[in-house]
Design brief:
This is Bacterial bifunctional deaminase-reductase C-terminal domain-containing protein. It comes from Pararcticibacter amylolyticus. By secondary structure, the chain is mainly β. It is 10% helix and 44% strand. The chain has one helix at 2-7, and strands spanning 11-16, 35-44, 50-60. It has a 3-stranded antiparallel sheet with strand order 1-3-2, with no helix packed on it. The chain is flat and about 35 Å long.
Length: 61
């Protein structure tokens, strides 16, 4: 079910704060198939937050 929902998403906007947390936590923890994403734009704000914008290429492996 989770993979089906991911296949309907065209654009992913991920904001990354400038903080080191150690191990971190995966964004897509239960993902069993590879998603082909293409970075189409990036923004860095005065606060240091980086916004990464990806487009789905609609194929899975």
């Amino acid at each position: 079910m989770y993979l089906r929902v991911l296949l309907f998403v065209n654009i992913y906007r991920i904001s990354v704060p400038p903080i080191v947390l150690g191990k971190g936590k995966p964004l897509f923890e239960d993902l069993k198939n590879h998603l082909n994403l293409k970075l189409i734009k990036k923004n860095v704000f005065k606060s240091g937050v980086a916004q990464l914008i990806y487009e789905s290429e609609r194929t899975i492996e």
